[in-house]
Give the backbone structure.
Amino acid sequence: MNKSVATLLLQGEYICPYRYPNEFDILQQANMQESVDSWLGGIGKRLAQLGEGGAFFMAPLLISSEDVRQLKSEFQNFRDVYGPAVLMLDMIRQTDTMNHTLSPGEHIHLHALEQAVTNSTTLEMQLKSLLDVIDRASQLSSVRENLRRLVDHLCKDGYLVRPVKEQDTYRVTGKVDQLYAVMDYIAINVAPSEVDAYEVGEPDLLQGSKNAQGAL
Amino acid sequence: MSERSYNVRKLLATLARHADIVAEAFDGSVSLGDKQHQKAVEALFEAGAIKPYDEGTYRLNPRLREFLADHLSSYHAHKDLRNLGSSMLQARAIWEEMRHFASDTSSKTMEQLYWALDEVTVDMSYSIEQNLHMLHVLIGNKYGNVEDLQSKLRQNSRYLKQIGTFLNSMSAISKFCKEVNDAAIARGLPEARMLVSRRLASQVLKWSGLIKDAQAVISNRLFDARLLERRQKLLSGVSLWLGRHKTTQGWDLDILPDQAHVPEMLRATCFTLRVQPDVADADELINTDLLRVVDLLPRPKVIPEAQPPSEAQRLIEDDDEDELTQEDAPSHVRAILALAQVMRGTSAKVSLLQWKQERLDMRLLDDSAWLMYCYPRLRELGMEAEFVVPVAGDIFGVNELFDDILVSSTTQETTA
């Protein structure tokens, strides 16, 4: 049983190859997974993984009513619990500089974000509209400074990691899969017409685009 | 505080007091409801914050709704950009008046005109900023205020047209600024020139740039043909939902524990452990570590030696007159003490009444009071009492009657 792996799991961390490469490698070994799993079983937990090859984390051995209550509460307070991460990641997606897919392991360059935002007043306005969501962001700070705070906020929440302290390059961590799992559930169970409208309307949208551009 | 400020504060206090009704009215109409609700609705109606809509229902004052919508960036479908035409006409009219009164710059009218021009320019500037904000929000959420694609497309072309008018307004503002700039010095109205330059002329270029930028984006952004990955669509969709429903916190969902993705959705939380050292472990290494930790611990506080608990308080009854000195003591005390002293040396019986009558200082004391006073004290003074029963006693009497008490020394008897 590796001490570092046990500590991280008990701390509620998601062990992915981008944030905790050594621990992830250790957990790749089947015998280690078994040993960790049985050790966690003693405290009513188990070793779980987010999808195939995703991040490892500590899940309850059996889903209790307390777990269900916690999940319900998180859905009820979605705006506070997940809202900031969703809005900030969507802001990065919209910068579109590197065709961001926001999948685990993807690189995000701060300078590219800055360039995209400064070149578009629309994105700049959108960044401004997120200032009350981003930790320590301010109207008085520059675009770069506010973007840095945005990525720092995402790092603090565990969705991004900065592998080299001296470089302004960040990587999306495996924890983001948990967020996608939650959003997937919402799209299926809550308001598919609202949340998923964009996807459903895609073919029409393309056609509409052509028609509209022809008309203009 | 001026009366005007007081009224503003009063109005805002009313709104704050009934904030829940205002919030309810922002989402739709409010009805009278129970007594408390009715009272709140009436207070808001008196303040003009809500207006009658249908029978028994009220809607938020449109101006207040506009203010809140601006604040929340929540716009209804096909909301027009604010028209700057009327504000421009107003500004021109005020400028004309200023030119008319230019000869008398110190007059009260001129002061009022300056104030009015300032107000109009601020209003224009606010409207432009709000228009830009609305455009960026609508572009940002891809016309999230309507659902279907056709409506989005129609809104897109509508705003493209309105942007054209908006840009024309910028030209009109530039023209007006130039006019003021040219004529103000000649007319002796430098403050008007400064005001218009600062509030409008210096901003026009920036505003025009922003509008053109929005114009370029608006025709392309919605129709971005790039196929998004499933996850990006989710991110975009949920983000849009958050942008559209600013007053909603989340969803009330039913979750079954055996649903497939529940473990994945549950956020991994910290499992708190507190490790305790095994103080019974005799291992030298452990012992050394424990001693090192003990050294790091703060010194124990010196507890002051506990004082023995003081005896519980008790009421000490004075032995009445016994503790008094002979001189201070009242006559009856002196008398009984003297009697006790006399009795110590003799075995004879002494009548208490006789003893009293022989003492001049006790003449005023009632006989029965003297007997009643002495009787309970005789034993502790070493004397024994014997009642002198009246000759013709009351045979039906309940109480034991006596006329006198004969006193003899008990110590004398015991020693004998």
